[in-house]
Design goal:
The complex is a heterotetramer, with two copies of chain A, one copy of chain B and one copy of chain C. Chain A has two helices and three strands, in the order E-H-E-H-E. By secondary structure, chain A is of the alpha+beta class. In chain B, 64% of the residues are buried. The complex binds adenosine-5'-diphosphate (ADP) and magnesium ion.
């Protein structure tokens, strides 16, 4: 099963990299871009056939390892 | 002589275009050392080149006029914070147009560490540098074997020579799907997963060279190794040849 | 303009007051102010404070910013010497290196933030200490990290350790300041409360010195650098001062994110401002943010200030006045500029691509007046936030358990198996090679590091001169638990000896005092004793304390950490030795010598007792000022006269480990003759081993006699084994095995 | 307009981070995860009301700056 984990830094936490990317885009003339936030995606290949239990396990992985609960939120998407 | 600049004081833009040389052993060729916001090895490169008698000039990334400059070094550091991808934003600095022109004209263009990454992003060299295989920053001396003497950096080195130079990078793993890579030096041991153990690569003309370890950090015995000097001497000599 | 000083409830982000039997708890308590402190504020203002004022007092009067529990004791430190340019009280201490060169340095802790988020906590710790140094006009040239965690067999400790190391690497490397040394230590007591201390040293020319002063009325306050967000709000008073408990998860949103690129630009921009003489004073924004950056420089200059918060660049909309005043957003500096220079300052900022805005004006009188949305939200005497912060002379007393600790001596019934013991010690994460950490740090930038990590002290040359600055940072919680006074003194002597072994003369100290809960008399006693010990040793050596930091409330669920002072000692050598002494310069055929007390058999507090028996008890050996000075003088002579290429002090793991480390670094075996096995494992002070060419025997003996220090030739280097030999009996450790054990101890545990 | 750019490393290029995460997951007992690939997301706020022209501009940004064609592929998603 293919599972995608989307990880985003919480909105209140600073994202200097996003800010720098926005600035560079403006320098290149793309001044219609008013803000940029960066995120990460993890594409997992997971063995298993029950969507629900796979999802549960991946949520577990996120809580323990994949996301940093202190500054990030995540979303799990099972692609099947 | 006890100039704060020698300790590593800022390459202040208002001081730019000031030239310095310890001794004019060579002609009046000038090697430009380009500074982007976030660069940090520019004064080290300048120090090491000046110790060889070369004349150097710090060039700010917004400068577009490189007249009077015969070769350029893009030094190490974290240009634009390495944000997005290392070298990605620096590639668009105004100075890079002139750097590309120099490369096309066959002038020596050398990128060290972050400078190498910038040259790849600017497509002046093929390939890209991605995170080290073990995902950790590596700062330690490594052995590299020079395998190609036909470049501006290695002209003075016999193929097969092993040099000890400090590595100092996180994104040091060279990769190039094109596969017709001109490898100039290889790591003796596979330290970071680089394709073909590439530590340095060049363009077809041999005048544009990217090298991951730092020759300037091993340019004096007191720093633990003087093996980098032969590379910098090669650059100085190549610059001289070009301008004759 | 309308004045609105009525207390307002909004903007206090700590959530609604907790209801009690008597109704809601007052906000000042939620902000960490006691009722007594609140009463004092009312007395100062002669009215109830506004929300903005309360916010300012709460952060400025927090333990972290006000030193309210420690100030009474810090006065004990000797602070004077002819070469002191700036002593404690400014952002960093500054000493004279001669010929117009100065060194500025300081040490800071980021313990609690690093527990909450190890990468960002450590990263912002680096950012903060750098600002303290370049605020003084100096270019930061080197960092040292002293980091302490619980044992690595617990996953959480591995996570914290690797996160902290990545954070220091991530920030330090990218900001372009090399991390050239430090300490890594593991003890059970740091499990819930790691210690992350960072020292920074900068170099400047004497005409570039800048102080944290607002200067004259009429000057303009210019805020430089990053935009202000809701970072670390409540951090200064809550995160840094409150103890850990199960609830700390709830405080998590106040994690600050560091941006080393912004800081790098800020460094270059500030150095250009200094170079062009465009500023009257500069203050960094750290804990307590704007509150501190406005009030401290005003108080120092005896002036007031008018500030308009609407001019502060923000990262998030709708920030309230208290939030703006308390925010700990990183990478910001406040410059005080004569009106005629403002344009030039803004141009420099633009060139370096950093934001800059005029936020206030220095005024006559001493009132700090803050406006927001067109209203005055705070109006108070600037100095009341700093000079009038409360001071507590907290009760202290020798803990009842000290006697028990001292009498709890381990009974050594037999000589241990030395080969096994050595390998056990080399495998101990606190003793083993720290290369796993320091090879992640750029430690070579600026081409100044001529003696780098892996040696005792660091030696940094100042290029273009023949001067070099030597630094050693030392801490030892176990030793200080067993005797905080002796421990504190021994740390100073150890650091001084380390510095001397690079050839340098000790010049000044900064200290970072990591302690438990100061409300406990036991902890305050440890604190006082430590200060006593550090002071005594500094006095004996004739060196001042020029700065430091105090971190209290290092406790978990009521259990305090070991008292853990960290000493950073700076020395000077001129001309610097070429080639410089390094551990890896021992060669086949060289003699191995021991200098220092010959009767060193103390084992209390040693790594040997801890690692082998899990024992921590007994009373550590007292230091001896005369012997300390003799050892320092002798080490410097050996280096200056090029008699020894490799010297190593005896500390964790004793002589056995010291000699093994030299052999490992130099890839050559060694034979050591001993009379009493305790000599090999004792960590008694003022001792070091060194290698020499046999031709120097007489010179070495003469120099030792002149220095008044006992000297013994222990053996010689050669072969590929480490051998301890007494009579016919030999303990043999294969050098390759020792090397592998020593180098793999950390990577193996970290996977 | 909100635009999301998904940047994925081309399959032929090594993904050390993905490999490391897969290893750590296995260490934690999640051995049903057989492969991990990492990607990045950029969340852009873009001024403009014509989806098509915004999309075109963002594709342009990707070609010039946001992605490196030597090692990366990208996908633009206009969320509106
Ligand atoms: N343990 C200590 N020993 C000596 N001086 C200290 C100690 N702790 C703090 N100080 C001094 O007190 C002053 C104020 O410190 P602090 O408020 O932490 O500064 P900052 O606001 O820059 O963090 C500094 O000059 C510091 O050097
Ligand atoms: Mg400060």
């Amino acid at each position: 099963m293919k599972v995608t984990v989307h990880i985003e830094r919480r909105a209140v936490i600073a994202d200097p990299e996003g800010a720098m990317i926005a600035r560079s885009l403006a320098d290149l003339g793309y001044d219609e871009v008013t803000a940029v936030r960066t995120g990460r995606t993890l594409h997992l290949e997971v063995e298993g056939d029950d969507v629900e239990s796979v999802e549960k396990r991946v949520i577990d992985m996120c809580d323990r390892l994949l996301a940093n609960p202190v500054i990030e939120d995540y979303r799990v998407e099972v692609d099947q | 002589m006890a100039d704060l600049c020698l300790l590593g004081t800022t390459p202040l833009p208002h001081r730019l275009r000031r030239r310095g040389s310890l001794a004019s052993l060579v002609g009046d060729e000038v090697i430009g050392v380009v500074v982007f916001p976030g660069s940090n090895c520019e004064l080290d490169v300048q120090w090491a080149l000046q110790a060889l008698g070369a004349e150097t000039e710090i060039v700010w990334h917004r400068d577009t006029d490189l007249s009077g400059i015969d070769a350029v070094v893009l030094p190490g550091g974290f240009a634009h914070g390495d944000y997005l991808r290392t070298g990605a934003i620096a590639r668009f600095s105004p100075v890079m147009t002139s750097v590309a022109e120099m490369a096309a004209a066959g002038r020596p263009v050398v990128g060290i560490c972050n400078g190498f990454q910038i040259l790849c992003e600017a497509r002046l060299l093929g390939g890209a540098l991605i995170a080290n295989r073990d995902l950790s920053f590596i700062c330690r001396p490594v052995e590299i074997e020079v395998v190609d003497s036909g470049t501006v950096l290695t002209a003075a080195v016999e193929p097969g020579t092993v040099l000890t130079l400090p590595l100092n990078s996180y994104e040091g793993q060279f990769t190039d799907p094109a596969e017709d890579v001109r490898i100039v030096a290889r790591y003796v041991a596979d330290v970071n997963g680089s394709q073909g153990r590439a530590a340095a690569v060049a363009n077809a003309g041999g005048n544009v060279v990217g090298i991951m370890p730092h020759p300037e950090r091993s340019s004096e015995e007191i720093l633990g190794s003087a093996d980098g000097r032969v590379l910098l001497e090669g650059l100085v000599a190549a610059t001289e040849r070009m301008t004759v | 303009m309308k004045t609105d000083l009525a207390p307002e409830q909004d903007g206090i982000t700590e959530g609604p007051p907790t209801p009690t039997d008597d109704g809601p708890a007052p906000i000042h308590r939620l902000l960490g102010l006691t009722d007594g402190e609140f009463a004092r504020i009312v007395e100062i203002l002669d009215r109830e404070p506004s929300a903005a004022e309360l916010a300012m007092y709460s952060v400025m009067w927090s333990e972290h910013c006000s030193y309210k529990s420690s100030r009474a004791h810090l006065g004990r430190f000797p602070t004077e010497a002819p070469w002191v340019v700036v002593g404690p009280g400014e952002n960093a201490g500054v000493i004279d290196l001669g010929d117009g060169w100065l060194a500025a340095f300081r040490i800071e802790s980021h313990n609690h933030p690093s527990y909450v988020e190890p990468y960002q906590g450590a990263a912002t710790g680096v950012g903060g200490i750098l600002r303290d140094v370049f605020t003084m006009g100096a270019r930061p040239v080197a960092l040292w990290d002293q980091i302490r965690f619980g044992p690595l067999d617990q996953p959480k400790n591995r996570y914290l350790f690797s996160g902290v190391v990545s954070g220091i690497a991530g920030y330090g490397n990218a900001v372009g300041v090399p991390t050239v040394g430090g300490e890594v230590d593991f003890e059970e007591c740091y499990t819930g409360n790691p210690l992350v201390n960072v020292m920074c040293l900068g170099i400047l020319r004497s005409d570039q010195l800048v102080l944290g002063t607002a200067g004259e009325p009429g000057n303009v306050a210019v805020l430089l650098g990053a935009a202000t967000g809701r970072d670390g709000i409540g951090g200064a008073s809550v995160l840094a001062s409150a103890s850990f408990d199960e609830e700390s998860g709830a405080k998590r949103p106040s994690v600050q994110v560091g941006d080393p690129f912004e800081e790098k630009k800020l460094i270059e921009a500030c150095l250009e401002l200094y170079d062009r003489d465009l500023v009257a004073g500069v203050q960094d924004l750290g804990a307590a943010g704007l509150s501190c950056a406005l009030s401290e420089p005003a108080a120092r200059a005896g002036v007031g200030m008018d500030v308009d918060l609407d001019t502060v660049g923000v990262r998030e909309p709708q920030m309230t006045a208290p939030e703006l005043l308390m925010s700990e957003s990183q990478e910001r500096m406040m410059a005080f500029v004569a009106p005629g220079n403002v344009e030039a300052v803004l141009a420099v900022a633009a060139k370096w691509e950093i934001a800059a805005s005029v936020v206030g004006t220095v005024t006559e009188g001493r009132t700090l007046r803050v406006r927001h949305n067109g209203q005055v939200v705070a109006e108070l005497p600037a100095a009341s936030l700093t000079d009038e912060a409360p001071r507590y002379d907290r009760p202290l007393g020798e803990p009842a358990w000290m006697e028990d600790l001292w009498s709890n001596k381990w009974k050594h019934v037999a000589q241990p198996a030395l080969a096994t013991t050595l390998l056990q010690l080399l495998d101990d994460p606190s003793i083993a090679s720290a290369a796993w950490a320091y090879e992640q740090y750029d430690h070579m930038l600026f081409l100044g590091t001529i003696v780098g990590p892996g040696n005792d002290g660091t030696l940094l040359r100042i290029k273009g001169t023949d001067k070099a600055v030597a630094v050693s940072t030392d801490g030892n919680g176990r030793l200080c638990l067993l005797d905080p006074r002796r421990g504190g003194a021994r740390l100073v002597y150890e650091a001084a000896l380390n510095v001397a072994m690079t050839g340098a003369e000790p010049r000044a100290v900064v200290d970072n005092l990591n302690f438990g809960n100061p409300e406990k008399p036991d902890v305050m006693w440890q604190f006082r004793q430590t200060i006593e010990g550090i002071s005594e040793a500094c006095e004996a050596l004739g060196i001042p304390v020029v700065g430091g930091n105090v971190s209290f409330y290092n406790e978990t669920d009521g259990t305090d950490i070991y008292p853990t002072p960290v000493v950073g000692l700076v020395g000077l050598v001129e001309p610097y030795p070429v080639p410089p002494p390094r551990l890896d310069r021992c060669r086949e055929g060289m003699d191995l010598w021991l200098a220092g007390p010959a009767d060193a058999i103390g084992l209390a507090g040693s790594a040997f007792e801890k690692v082998t028996f899990g024992h921590v008890g007994g009373r550590p050996t007292a230091p001896d000022a005369t012997m300390a000075k003799a050892a320092i003088g002798f080490a410097r002579r050996l280096v200056a006269d090029h008699l020894s290429p490799a010297l190593h002090d005896i500390s964790d793991g004793g002589l056995a480990v010291a000699v093994a480390e030299m052999a490992i670094a130099s890839a050559v075996g060694v034979v050591v003759d001993y009379a009493d096995w305790r000599h090999l494992l004792s960590e008694d002070p003022h001792r070091f081993v060194f290698a020499t060419d046999p031709e120097h025997r007489t010179s070495v003996e003469d120099a030792a006699a002149a220095a008044g220090i006992p000297l013994a030739r222990l053996g010689s280097f050669g072969g590929n084994e480490i051998i301890f030999s007494r009579g016919g009996a030999k303990a043999v450790v294969d050098l390759a095995t020792a090397t592998e054990t020593y180098r793999s101890a950390l990577p193996r545990r970290l996977g």
